[in-house]
Specification:
With 478 residues, this protein is of the alpha+beta class. It has 18 helices and 10 strands. The strands form 3 sheets. A 5-stranded mixed sheet has the order 6-7-8-9-10, sandwiched between helices. A 3-stranded antiparallel sheet has the order 2-3-4. Strands 1-5 form a two-stranded antiparallel sheet.
Length: 478
């Protein structure tokens, strides 16, 4: 359910705020480049505030010793704490629970700052440039930094929306951390703020303009590499011995930035001279918003309940029933339509994964089962883990049949994840967009049985037919 649906608001064409899904985070991020170009109160000076913050941080870093006994170093470490702003409902999480204090992230920023200083940069033209000097800073972290520093502006923006719809929106006072940074004491301050209530976690809601949201940051390691590869190709080939761009990983991008800090200024000038657009949420060609929104609503309108599992056998049955519920929704209740764009192109794998989360989440909560995204099990990302304590656990990987590495998923990746996590059962959920793809994977059942015998664990394949132009279940009864 979205903010507008819960509060029964019908946004007008003048409403430029993003309408967040309240049960989960949407895979969107605040893009500082879009923020710096926005002509909307109260964000007219927001980017300048971020740069002022980092100018002070660089000055402190330049005069501090890089050790915990140094007072300035400790102050700087605390200054650079940027926890996920969970009130925005944006980011990677499949809940709206934030990513903790940001203590480890603070170290990533510190490393980036000190590395840039060692490379000769005692300040930066764009704060996003910090990401060029640290492995751990990507789109999510840049978004978290931005959201924390401009939080007071986000609060003002949200309160203006509340004022417009005061007859419909319920508010409550919430303690909000990192609302202001005191430059004299070098301490983040918190305030008690009146905000709309999120009924799914009883926390506050912060709204932000659609104009500053993107699926990726325009300024990033990847875009810096694109720029220097296009403009400094011969230098890169001669100095770093790279024959093709795909050979250059994040570590190598950092080395290039350290070696040629003058290229960063040219890159900044190039990027800020161009026109950029936010992610088109209405058309949602990647399927990161509309499929989740519709699927959550379907799940709430068509609830099913199970006997709460109390052992591995009943746990496995409930998980299997949840997966089959998703398959039935896609195949027989028009869910497949959410996986296709209006121009008849199929959406990417992420759309199917987010649809699955949307349907599964409410069922999991009702049955005391945790659904989490697993990001780093062995050789890459598995998709999700169902768990009830430590004993009852199941892994699930969601793949499109057209994925070039489809067979690696069932033969290599899922077995490896199950081994690393010591989990005995895994589901391999496959989405097919055409009859040709269904034919392609006809051996999946046989392969899954063979792999299960080899690893002495159980892999269960589930094939979901998302081919277009199906009749709905109600029409099939006619």
């Amino acid at each position: 359910m979205t903010f507008s649906e819960y509060y029964e608001i019908t946004p007008t064409s003048k409403d430029d705020w993003f309408d967040p899904i309240l049960q989960t985070d949407t895979l969107l991020f605040i893009d500082p480049l879009l923020l710096s170009n926005i002509n909307l109160r109260p964000f007219l000076g927001s980017y300048e505030e971020i740069m002022k913050f980092f100018k002070n941080a660089f000055e402190i870093a330049a005069k501090s010793e890089r050790k915990s006994s140094d007072l300035f170093f400790r102050k700087l470490n605390n200054m650079l704490l940027f926890p996920e702003v969970e009130e925005l409902c944006l980011g990677y999480s499949i809940s709206t629970k934030g990513a903790g204090s940001g203590r480890g992230f603070s170290q990533d920023i510190l490393n980036g700052m000190y590395t840039s200083i060692e490379a000769g940069l005692n300040n930066i033209d764009r704060f996003e440039n910090i990401g060029l000097f640290s492995m751990g800073i990507g789109r999510d972290r840049i978004s978290d930094i931005t959201a924390n520093i401009i939080k007071s502006d986000l609060i003002k923006y949200t309160q203006a929306v509340v004022k417009k719809y005061s007859d419909k929106i319920t508010t409550k006072k919430f303690p909000i951390h990192n609302t202001k940074f005191n430059m004299k004491t070098l301490v983040w301050e918190k305030e008690i703020v009146e905000l709309p209530v999120n009924p799914y976690n009883n926390k506050g809601i912060l709204l932000c303009p659609k104009k500053i949201l993107n699926i990726d940051s325009y300024m990033s390691k990847e875009s810096f590499l694109d720029y220097v590869w296009d403009t400094k190709n011969s230098d890169i080939r001669d100095e770093f011995s790279f024959a093709i761009k795909s050979e250059i990983d994040k570590k190598n991008i950092i080395n290039i930035a350290k070696k040629h800090t003058e290229w960063i200024a040219l890159y900044n000038k190039f990027m800020t001279s161009r026109d950029f657009s936010p992610y088109d949420i209405e058309n949602d060609i990647l399927g990161i918003y509309q499929p989740s929104r519709a699927s959550f609503n379907y799940g709430e309108e068509n609830p099913i309940s199970f006997k709460e599992p109390n052992d591995q056998k009943t746990f496995d049955k409930v998980v299997g029933d949840i997966i089959n519920y998703f398959a039935d929704y896609v195949e027989n209740n028009s869910g497949y339509k959410l996986l296709w764009n209006d121009n008849k192109t199929a959406k990417k794998e992420t759309a199917a994964q987010l649809m699955f989360v949307a349907l599964a989440k409410s069922l999991c909560k009702a049955n005391n089962i945790d659904l989490s995204r697993e990001n780093n099990l062995g050789r890459g990302p598995v998709d999700f883990k169902f768990s009830q304590g430590y004993k009852n656990r199941v892994l699930i990987e969601v793949k499109l049949a057209k994925n070039n590495r489809f067979w690696d998923g069932v033969r290599l990746q899922l077995p490896k994840y199950m081994e690393v996590e010591d989990i005995t059962k895994g589901y391999f959920l496959v989405i097919c967009y055409s009859e040709k793809e269904i034919e392609k994977i006809k051996e999946l059942q046989k392969v899954s049985i063979q792999i299960s015998k080899e690893i002495k664990k159980e892999i269960i394949p589930i094939i979901v037919d998302a081919t277009p132009d199906k009749k709905s279940a109600s029409n099939l009864k006619d």
